[in-house]
């Protein structure tokens, strides 16, 4: 007879996910970016759901089912939007990551690129969540509300910086650049490989990023400079040496 497999307690599982997953990203890419944090958060959310949902109060669920039986909800065509909502939870951050890596922000296209990120990570999840409001009722309303809010906020959180920059627009500031470092990533079997992205440290403590695929940023160097950038995503659009 095969001995039962001992399951790791819940909280050590959560700590292990929170430490190991960002650590793997750090070892692979040399940094823990928004995608790594978001992916870790998704795994934590899934682990919490697997742990807590089977343990929910059964009598509470029975009362909720009885309440729905007394006042049944008729199907609505918009209920199908829930499938969009479910798809947005894991897919929207991934699509945003793909957009960020396949595009280069410039003074001509930044509205289009940020708008696409807002559409994928903010607009579509919120639209998909609307049909859920009909089902937040009865004794289990708090659980349903928590489920809907957490599931919606996960992709929305990724799109909020893009939304803030889309509304706030470009900023122009006279700054002093103290360091310019090219980001490198580890490639399996090929050692480290330089990317097109620069970390730009400023004298006031801020760190912005510049994509050298934008020809206007290839001359970026230490010293005084006039930067045009997006405040919340931290992306430099244009630089003029002073």
Roughly how much helix do the residues carry, as a percent range? 40-55%
First-residue to last-residue Cα separation? 77 Å
Q: Would you list the SSEs in sequence order as H and E?
A: HHHHHHEEEEE
> How many H/I helices?
6
What is the compact description of this entry?
The protein is α+β, with helices and mostly antiparallel strands and 242 residues long. Helix content is 50%, strand content 20%. The chain contains 6 helices and 5 strands, in the order ααααααβββββ.
Task: Please describe the structure with a list of short key phrases separated by commas or semicolons.
single chain, 5 strands, 50% helix, 5-stranded antiparallel beta sheet, OB fold (Dihydrolipoamide Acetyltransferase, E2P)
Describe the structure.
The protein is α+β, with helices and mostly antiparallel strands. It is built from six helices and five strands. The chain has three domains: 49 residues, no CATH class; 101 residues; 71 residues, Beta Barrel (OB fold (Dihydrolipoamide Acetyltransferase, E2P)). Helices cover 50% and strands 20% of the residues. Strands 3-2-1-4-5 form a five-stranded antiparallel β-sheet.
């Amino acid at each position: 007879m095969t001995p039962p497999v001992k399951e790791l307690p819940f909280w050590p599982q959560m700590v292990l996910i929170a430490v190991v997953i960002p650590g793997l990203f750090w070892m692979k890419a040399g940094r823990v970016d928004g995608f790594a944090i978001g992916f870790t958060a998704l795994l934590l959310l899934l682990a919490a759901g697997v742990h807590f949902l089977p343990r929910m109060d059964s009598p509470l669920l029975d009362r909720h089912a009885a309440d729905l039986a007394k006042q049944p909800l008729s199907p609505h065509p918009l209920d199908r939007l829930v499938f969009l909502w479910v798809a947005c939870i894991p897919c929207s951050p991934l699509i945003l990551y793909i957009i960020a890596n396949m595009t280069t922000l410039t003074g001509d296209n930044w509205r289009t690129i940020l708008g696409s990120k807002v559409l994928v990570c903010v607009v579509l999840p919120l639209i998909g969540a609307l049909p859920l409001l009909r089902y937040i009722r009865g004794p289990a309303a708090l659980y349903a509300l928590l489920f809907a809010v957490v599931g919606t906020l996960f992709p929305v959180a990724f799109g909020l910086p893009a939304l803030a920059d889309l509304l706030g627009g470009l900023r122009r500031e006279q700054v002093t650049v103290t360091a310019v470092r090219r980001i490198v990533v580890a490639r399996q079997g090929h050692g480290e490989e330089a990317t097109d992205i620069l970390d730009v440290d400023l004298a006031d403590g801020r760190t912005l990023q510049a994509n050298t695929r934008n020809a206007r940023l290839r001359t970026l160097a230490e010293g005084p400079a006039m930067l045009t950038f997006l405040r919340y995503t931290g992306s430099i659009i244009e630089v003029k040496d002073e």
